[in-house]
Amino acid sequence: MQPKDEQPGCSASMIGPDGSFTSAWLRDKSIAPVPVSSHVDAALSRRIAAGCRAVGAPHILRADSDRASTDCTARDATALRLPIDSGHEDIRPPAIVYTPDRQGAILFQEAGYALIAGTESFMSAAVGEGVDTARARFSRYARTLAARHPTLVAVAAAYPPAHRAWSRPADVAPGSGAAQQLALLDELVTGARSAPEFAHDWWKARRTSQTNGERIQTPLAELFDRVFMILEDYAVDPDLREPGDLSDEDLRAAVREVWGTFRHVMAERR
Questions:
Q1: CA 41, CA 61: separation in Å to the nearest integer?
Q2: Model-level pTM greater than 0.90?
Q3: Residues 145 and 58 in one domain
Q4: Which of 158, 184, 208 is a domain's end point?
Q5: Are residues 25 and 149 located together in one domain of the fold?
């Protein structure tokens, strides 16, 4: 038998009378539906473990979600403490799995899907592909199984992607993480930004893009992937550079080449 939570705290505020996450708990959090079978499968288990590691959760708590809004004390008093990376296969709906500090939770109300919700740190790890990408993929999954599982279509409709996919610079929304990345390319090539500044700010803008759930498609995705690979061979701190690593000028030249080639190709497609 798994041990119960040693320090239960009332988590009824996470779930409302309708069985969904409450708006109060979701404040400053994001949510994404993901496919799942009739129990917590390996894919969902990996998401749980990744999210827990990201927020430093030592274990997870598992409780029956149908008791959440009616009996807080009973629900948390019977919550089971489980390891973050094993023992999840016996979890079946209706259930909720959550971190002790309530930074992240997985609501598993019925077979076919689960809702993952949490803070930026939790979601960046648990939904590494990005919230919008997860939502878009779930929508395709729901359409495929619509005849056998019509509930999935309603779930997908309730959680649509916030951004449409961007494939060209002209598609990118101003102020987005992707827009920052494009501006940085110009600034590096023109000399308005040093190589170390570019590298530091590129990773920052990339994290912003991922956090926002921005969806990037080819050919823009290929450009960003190439810059990513270039930066993998560059160390911002000269003292940490190894033989074969790019120098500041090497970085600038490599980025100038891929950025120039991309713009040339895009101009030909007009």
A1: 17
A2: no
A3: yes
A4: 158
A5: yes
